[in-house]
Sequence to fold (384 residues):
Amino acid sequence: MLRRIIEKHLQELLARYPAVALLGPRQVGKTTLAKQLSKTYFDLEIESERLRLDLQLDDILQSQNLIILDEAQNYPDILPKLRHAIDAKREQNGRFLILGSVSPALMTNVSEFLTGRIALAELCPFSILELNVNRQDDLWLMGGFPNGGVLNAKQYPEWQKFYLDLLATRDLPVWGLPAQATVTSRLFRMIAAIHGTVVNASQLGKSMGVSYHTINSYLRYLEQAYLTRRIGPYFINIKKRLVKAPKIYWRDSGILHSLLNIQTQDDLLAQPWVGHSWEGWIIEQIVNSLSNAGSLYDGPYFFRTHDGHEIDLVINLKGKIWAFEIKLTSQPSKNDMDRLNANADLINADYRVLLSRTKHPLHNDRSFSMNLPAILDILLHDSK
Fold:
């Protein structure tokens, strides 16, 4: 069984807080990870499990074992009881691990009852740091869900199609998305078509026959279910007009490629939008790796002016601004670095990273020409 990098961070949070909420998309491995930490487990999506918890609650709350409550958004009545139990023994940490697949339903109740008593962590699909570095192209093509193909290639892309069908027909409506499954599936495909580009909610709504307010509401549901990510612009006071609309990405590259009917690496490399796919995958790898390590950072952002100056990724890590240019090439040029430095000067970036597939990493005090594993090693070291 592959170890998840977040496990260390999760253990550290449990040592400091009475409760921890481990969030993330369905089928990402939350239950598998949690059961390695404790055998006291309740699946609150199942009515009989909710009843079992209710009947055994007094004894369970006296236990010294970590109590795992899975899909806790299905049983919000448990949260005030947890608050009472925590306040009765406020000095005792590591008592409850709450798992959830959708943030709005769970976090509304968590914020009401457990604020100040709970820490948050997010489990993401597998990162390159959790697999053999030589599996980079497999992970990019098939995505990082444990059952999505990266551990068994025969499951891609069929698994992703079934996964999205179930989300559209069952999970998202249960979580509150007010759209028919056919509408949701169409929205999935349209987001795949604009992956890595600036969102025009009005145009997207016109294509689907709904208002831009409705589109923005739908997009929030997809983000809160950990399916998509909207990256906002990085604002700075300069004498240039800035693009203010966010970019949108599918968070898992395997889902993106399944929606676009990509079967093989050769299929992927032949697409005109392959650069957007690579960019989105790299961004997720960086963001997820920092989150898994418990690093505190601000971002991700992008920077773009109306006259064509652009930075693919901006993050603030421990007060230092990092600017990334992401190129799908194994031979980045001096012109690429010069352009990055010129754009990074506009936002006064402390560090500039030309991130490619190069096999010859180079750097000086401020500028880096790196591949993904090399820059992750530097970022994680600097974030400690």
